Amino acid sequence: MKDENIHKKIEEVMQSIDNIQKASPRPFLFTRLEARMQKEKNIWVKLASFVARPVIALTCICIILMMNAIVIFSTSNSGNSLTQQNAELATVDEYSQVTTTLYDFENARP
After folding, report:
1. Where are the domains of the chain?
2. Please, are residues 57 and 51 in contact by the beta-carbon 8 Å criterion?
3. Over the chain (110 residues), what is each successive 10-residue block's mean pLDDT?
């Protein structure tokens, strides 16, 4: 009895997959998707595609390197005078004073 019931259910399941067909998308689905992706290009996508061009990227890198070189060479030529160095040392000495904190306890005996 159980075997007949199990075999009957197996046969029903096997027959249910006889008429299965391959799923296919609606007509012109891919065309619609491509049109939507082309339409959704905003200002940031356009800017990124412009900056990603090799000529623009190399030009930006060269400009940044030139600006860095100008800053480095203009500050190295000025040099520090002796009075300016002494003033800087004085401020360092002022900040290196010893301070006490609440954690420094005196050993006071009564």
Report:
1. 28-76
2. yes
3. 81 83 84 82 82 91 95 69 64 59 61
